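Annex B. Sample input.
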Amino acid sequence: MFKALQKNDVAKEILLEGIEYCNQNGYYDRQNMLVDELNNRVSTVKTIDFELKNITLEEILEKSSDYAVEKQLKNRLNDINFMSQWQDRLDKENSNIEEVVNNSMKTIQNNFSLDYVYYFKVNKDKLELAFSDNDNLLDNEDIDTIKKFFDKNTSSFVVDRTEKNYQEYEEIITVFKGVQVFTIVGIPIMDNDKIDSVFIGLLVMHRNVYSNRKILNKNNFIVLKYVFGQFVDAIERIKVHSDIERMNSQLKDMASTDLLTGLLNRQGFMNKINERNSTA
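Annex B, continued. Sample output.
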């Protein structure tokens, strides 16, 4: 109606509010139709031929409301189960950091239906790419741009093309050359007011994105922030454990060797004899 009256700004605002509402409540088909309307595309409307008998409009609205609540509760339960399984998995992970990173990032990607995921870690004040599933790797200049962005913007965010503030993130979106970004999520982890780790996830604009893809909503975003925070903590625990094991090994070597010659001392010599005797 507002479009017909040439009040396009009002129409756009109403459409954006409708998209946000549908996104938060799981009405993804309706959300896709509103996105098509926002971008002046023709939607493919699914029609079902059936008759309603012996049911009032009030009963239809009540059933619809019950369905929405049930769907929200189901989504929350799925999130809780995933977070519980995620924590159990991290607690049981081995000391191979590279394997933990690869498995964890792939799990996040699959659970949140992300097209691309990136994990960055600061090493000696320099941001380094620790994981990416995109063959078009970022160069040093791209990573420096990401570091500067999060140095200025330390809050987590999720934004897609339908939102008014999408252009505010153009600085970081343009880093991903050749990728038509539809939704981007960024999660920085701070340590003493400095960037320690960064997660970036992308949903890509596919030709059929509006008919079969779900936009990352605010509830998914909250869970994702928690999950990435737990992942960073787990990596730090593994690193500390690995450092302790290495230090213990070094101390053991120091206790059994002569510092001047590097040869076995008396204690080291006796330990070797005992080892040989135990295996004889």
